[in-house]
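Notes continue from the previous slide.

Worked example: a multi-chain complex. Inputs as given:
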Amino acid sequence: MNSTIILKGNILYTPRPSEFVAIQQGYVIAVDGVVVHCGESIPPAYGEHPITDYGDHLIIPGFVDTHAHAPQYCNRGLGMDKELLPWLETYTFPEEAKFSDKEYARLVYGAFVHDLWRNGTTRSILFGTIHKDSTLVLMELLQKAGLSAYVGKVNMDRNSPEFLIEDTHQSLADTKEWLEASAQFGPLVKPIITPRFVPSCTSELMSGLGNLAQAYNVPVQSHLSENHGEIDWVAALLPEAANYTDVYYEHHLMGKVPTVMAHCIHLSDVEMDRMAETQTMVSHCPYSNVNLSSGIAPIRKLFERKIPIGLGSDISGGHIVSMAKVLTEAIGLSKMKWVEVDQMYAPLTLSEAFYMATKGGGKFFGKVGSFEKGCELDALVIDDTTLFDPNERSLEERLERWLYVGDDRHIVERYVAGKVAPEPTN
Amino acid sequence: MNSTIILKGNILYTPRPSEFVAIQQGYVIAVDGVVVHCGESIPPAYGEHPITDYGDHLIIPGFVDTHAHAPQYCNRGLGMDKELLPWLETYTFPEEAKFSDKEYARLVYGAFVHDLWRNGTTRSILFGTIHKDSTLVLMELLQKAGLSAYVGKVNMDRNSPEFLIEDTHQSLADTKEWLEASAQFGPLVKPIITPRFVPSCTSELMSGLGNLAQAYNVPVQSHLSENHGEIDWVAALLPEAANYTDVYYEHHLMGKVPTVMAHCIHLSDVEMDRMAETQTMVSHCPYSNVNLSSGIAPIRKLFERKIPIGLGSDISGGHIVSMAKVLTEAIGLSKMKWVEVDQMYAPLTLSEAFYMATKGGGKFFGKVGSFEKGCELDALVIDDTTLFDPNERSLEERLERWLYVGDDRHIVERYVAGKVAPEPTN
């Protein structure tokens, strides 16, 4: 009962950060959602299968968003004149409190999932809120939309507004219950352990979450080293810790299961060594880092140390869902680091940023984000004909232009793990 | 034969950089294209006139783009991994050469003018190419679209590719002929003297252009202090000049008629003094400065010295036509200057950036970019209902969100000097 699909079009992907593979009028073939061939012709074994021909359109891997807060969707583009901590107090926490109401959650999460779909984000790693039932609603909506995601019920038991603080034992009990309920959603929508960040979690809570992650073999996500105020706060809360990174490490929230940490802007060399040793993924969130004046992450340095890097929208610290725009912003920010701060940080190239937004972040899901053999087939079909240009352009130039100036209007089809994801009706 | 219009809706504008005026369900009234009243009610004298009621929509001033290269429209979003000088050689100059063909010009300029319209840019200050006839085509298309602009035939007689270099005398003769032909386009579309930049203009050409600007009472635009390579080049070409700025000043291209200079990233204090003394406008082009790794202009410092500042898309050094996006990028860049370079540069606030994109740049056109009495009425009507949010928001919050996450799909009407500008058909 194998299901074989063959897509034809102008194919572009980045097997390595350093280069695009571009195939004019090529074919990508998947069996049961997994790529078996990508090239200029169809191998004889697949000669009998029907072809979905996308003509002159571009076919690229689906985008991977490695960090977004689904419940902050209504706050995108608001409060952009504030820094992290006051912004959390004024906008974020009051909004997240509303997700104690499952119906409010269904309304907002439905709109958010539609926006992920619209912008071609086929995979995402998401924060929910502390509310387990609303978090299950988000997982249900993603599954119905045919999108893949890791979704986390958030844990926070200190230094938070009264209306968002959990009792430590209840938090762990709720997390266990939610982990077990999550099994219903199948292979594309899975749970991820989600301590909000060190300042809002007691040591007891973090240890308990580290144990749950290992017991259920579930990955971990959190925030790390976003802002100097936050870093100083962690040092004051845990004066015995060697550094911010080691707080997570010592609580087994890093190194035991796969972990992704958002931001990582101000890491010391010792902390970078720990990230590399544990192969903890950095979720680089350029729009958020700009909006909240957090600073420019040293992406070139992290990259050279072989730390895995994905890109994140960080809705709503970041305001833009589109990973095409997030990746061009990452390039722009890297240029500003190079020109304004230190010429040792060579700017990101287009292929490097595209890699991070596809295969780089995709590693967290297994083999995802590329059209190499063995990868799950996530794909976007791009019709760029309305981007006016009477001149002949290479496929790379057409892709560059769409990434910089195109938008969701040009995405005409989305595939996730080999299946078309139609527009979510909710 | 006075023509009176009354618009009703949620009105926002920035009479000063420091604050928005926001009027819930207010009225803006214009007679013969000029605002006579903006407030919460209709003065008795206008009680008999019909009202155009935009319901719950936002009404804001039209955007002013103080720097864009119309002939580079086809190159937007291409070659973004290059710096200024190689990017000019590879992409810009070969494209501009095509504008010797008036039909090619009509095709590309038509698409560009449509994109200005689509994004709500009611006023713009544009570079054409060296070709006078094609430049007249651009002016004709703007006039037909009902948009207002200063348009320049470019001058360049050295250090340029052979196919774009002018003979000095022919360049001045063509400019004179074009200035005279420009009179046909009426008050909304006017000529501006446009030496490309110092490296591509001989002293003789610059002097001749300075004389023409004064003789015809026409303003001047050019580029200034964008990139270190360019600045060093100017110093090598004119070793006797005190600095880059003074080359323009000494040739009467600054201080005699209104002048706007794009970029101004690396000005010395002495140069800033000259800009302030001559009230030369800076066109700050944040996307371009990022894309070409030019650096972050010290906008706070320029602002404090009372130098006039507008914002520019700089198509195609910048890739984004939308001034809503250019203004949010200006805010983002100013935050990076503050956090990564020097905390003396306080980040731009939303109202400051909005002011620059409306009334700030509008000053080049007279009284434009605000709804204060005496201003020409340029307005955009924004329907933000499809930007999902079940929560009540203030008018400022709704505007902030639209600027950050909205797009042309939400602009439902454009007014220029009191008249609706319908979609250009061309």
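Summary box: Residues 63-365 of chain A form a domain with the TIM Barrel fold (CATH 3.20.20.140). The radius of gyration of chain A is 21 Å.
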